[in-house]
């Protein structure tokens, strides 16, 4: 391999790694998140306009799922869940098919918040859950629509606690967003 080609490959690899930012330094503060990552505000605002899911709910779900880590995987479990949204393969494929966004990647924040908006919109249309209801939206997000309908979360006290935290964090993010300046 020639030196210019090798250098190009190294730059491509380094550039690819550098393009995925570390999690925000203050992940529980919406104003700080968007100050640090202005493009994330644009992405969440776009998803809110498109799907009607409040920015605060989008952030709370992603914070609970991945702590804003682009390459997150569930600890200690065999699962295809991956990325910011922790979407599993089948659900991610369903999203890409339904939206026509075939190139969407779970490691891309813009795609992940669009996915969350899409999924909460489907949940609203399918189960009648308000897009502002972080608690029930998260339970349906985690358990899937059929699992939510069957009430599988009722036997998972840990999941109910997480869903309560998601709902509270969504309310906190909402209050922060109302007070911070763009």
In words, what does this structure look like?
The protein is mainly alpha-helical. It has helices spanning 3-18, 30-36, 38-51, 55-66, 89-99, 109-127, 134-150, 157-179. Helix 4 (55-66) crosses helix 8 (157-179), helix 6 (109-127) packs across helix 7 (134-150) and helix 7 runs antiparallel to helix 8 (157-179). Residues 3-18 have low confidence and may be disordered.
Short description:
The protein is 65% helix and 0% strand. With 182 residues, it is mostly helical.
Which descriptors would you attach to this protein?
182 residues; mainly alpha; 0% strand
Radius of gyration: 17 Å
Order of helices and strands: HHHHHHHH
Residue share in helix: 55-70%
Shape: globular
Q: In whole angstroms, how far apart are the ends?
A: 49 Å
Beta strands, count: 0
**Arithmetic mean pLDDT:** 90
Number of helical segments with 4 or more residues: 8
The main pleated sheet reads as: none
Low-confidence stretches: 3-18
The fraction of residues in strands falls at: under 5%
Structural class: mainly alpha
């Amino acid at each position: 391999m020639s030196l210019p080609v090798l250098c190009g490959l190294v730059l491509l690899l380094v550039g690819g790694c550098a393009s995925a930012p570390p999690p925000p330094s203050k992940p529980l503060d919406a104003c700080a998140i968007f100050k640090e990552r202005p493009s994330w505000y644009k992405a969440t605002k776009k998803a809110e306009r498109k799907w009607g899911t409040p920015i605060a709910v989008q952030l709370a779900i992603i914070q609970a799922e991945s702590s804003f880590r682009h390459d997150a995987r569930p600890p200690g479990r065999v699962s295809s869940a991956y990325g910011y949204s922790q979407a599993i393969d089948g659900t991610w494929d369903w999203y890409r098919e339904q939206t026509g966004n075939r190139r969407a990647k779970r490691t891309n924040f813009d795609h992940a918040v669009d996915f969350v908006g899409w999924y909460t919109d489907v949940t609203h249309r399918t189960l009648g859950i308000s897009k502002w209801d972080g608690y029930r939206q998260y339970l349906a997000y985690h358990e899937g629509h059929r699992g939510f309908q069957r009430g599988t979360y009722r036997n998972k006290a840990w999941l109910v606690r997480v869903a309560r935290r998601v709902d509270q964090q969504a309310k906190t993010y909402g209050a922060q967003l109302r007070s911070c300046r763009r």
